[in-house]
Amino acid sequence: MALDVPAALSRLAIRLAGEGARVEGAQRLTGGASMETWAFDICAPKGRQALILRRRAGAFDPDNSRSTSLAAEAALIRAVGARGAPAPVLVHLCEEADGLGEAHVTRRVGGETLGRKIVGDPRFDAVRPRLARQCGEILAQIHATPPPPEARLKTADAAVELDRYEEAYRASGAERPVLELAFRHLRTHAPEPRAAVLLHGDFRNGNLMIDPQAGVAAVLDWELSHLGDPAEDLGWICVNSWRFGRPDRPVGGFGGYNELLAGYRDAGGEAIPLSRVRYWQALGSLKWGVMCLMMYASWATGAEASVERPMIGRRVSETEIDLLNLLEAGL
Amino acid sequence: MITHPKPEELAEAVARWIEQIRPELAPRNAFLARVAINALAAVGRELAQGEAAKAAAVDRISGLLGHGGTYEGLTWELCEALRSGTLDAQTPGLLAALRANVLDQLAIDQPSYRHEGNI
């Protein structure tokens, strides 16, 4: 039976804010199969707090999952927050007694996460030209953060990522010449390995809370965090699939490569050549192409019933044209 | 194939009906209804353009491999050649042929997709 989350939140409110505290406006925000996000307010005699609950609805297998545990995510957002990166502020890591399963509570940050609005809505016209530089600065802060040992993050370089996604591609049974070409090309053109740093792992337009005045107010969704090449994070936000119709603005559809790299350097990051970012951008398009095949597969096998899943399978061709554009440009 | 109605007209009729009832739906279902309309539009485009796209792809892959065959057989052989490195990004005509095939597929899947090649 599904957990009654609003009832559990009401009990949590008393634990966190004392007798007389109550919950208002509890509302589920996302419909992910494994992870739930809820917005809610705690109203207590000493004031009102706007909060977010993230909880795992299904079972978690730390050895086989790509995702970190929510306890690891809590350790991560505390660690990067201490370095000045805008992560959500942790309020509570849930315990057994909270009855919410694996979950944590953070302060709710206002702003917009929908990529298309950030890229096109006039409300963001003023702040948009500053976002790419801010992203570079924030990534430098994240990459300089010592990885919290309790998060027990995995390490993945380009070869590990290529192995993982090629295995998934082969298992899908699909035959896509452009993906074959990209796997081989990216294997033979991999950059020199380097010391691994803490990565966000899913740093893209869509996981950034953007305030129309201040810009990047919070970096969300840390569950794919791992250790690896810093250019992986820089390349991922440049993948054309998250430029929302603005391929002329390579960084998230809002800014340019130079601003991203300058922000990174000015905040203490190393000088990263654009070619290394473009390599990881291509690997990012390839990964997204394989993820689209996997989402189709999750429908084809009956694991997921949503009409969204097979339709995402038709997004593989977008990653193929993006890969061809990169290959024709010599990456 | 019968023409009264054509299969793409059936898909269009269903899409129009979903569009009519969409305003009555709760937000999540309204979103999924939009996805469903897009899926039916892709079916319509594939019915209209798929056969010509497939024939053109067969011609292009035949040109790369130096012999003819079925779409499935040629695609499998091309994948094997790219996997083993017999053909690669340096092979004359390879990227151009793949681009033409992918653009035909994109015209069916997501005709409004904007990428670095059409800025």
Written overview of the protein:
The complex is a heterodimer of chains A (331) and B (119). With 331 residues, chain A is of the alpha+beta class. Chain A has 2 domains: 5-107, Phosphorylase Kinase, domain 1 (2-Layer Sandwich); 115-328, Aminoglycoside phosphotransferase (APH), C-terminal lobe (Aminoglycoside 3'-phosphotransferase, Chain: A, domain 2, Alpha-Beta Complex). Chain A is 42% helix and 15% strand. Chain A has 11 helices and 9 strands. In chain A, the strands form 3 sheets. Chain A has a 5-stranded antiparallel β-sheet. A two-stranded antiparallel sheet of chain A has the order 6-9. In chain A, a hairpin with a 3-residue loop joins strand 7 and strand 8. The radius of gyration of chain A is 20 Å and the shape is globular. Chain A starts with a helix and ends with a helix. By secondary structure, chain B is an all-alpha fold. Chain B has one domain (7-111). In chain B, 71% of the residues lie in helices and 0% in strands. Chain B is elongated and about 55 Å long. The mean pLDDT of chain B is 96. Chain A binds chain B through residues 31, 175-178, 180-181, 183-185, 188, 240, 243, 245-248, 306-308, 310-311, 314-318, 320-322, 324-329, and chain B through 28, 32, 35-36, 38-39, 42, 75-76, 78-79, 82-83, 85, 88-89, 94-95, 98-99, 101-103, 105-106, 109-110, 112-119.
Keywords, please?
heterodimer, A: about 325 residues, alpha+beta, Phosphorylase Kinase, domain 1, Aminoglycoside 3'-phosphotransferase, Chain: A, domain 2, five-stranded antiparallel β-sheet, two-stranded antiparallel ribbon, 11 helices, 9 strands, globular, B: about 120 residues, mainly alpha, about 70% helix
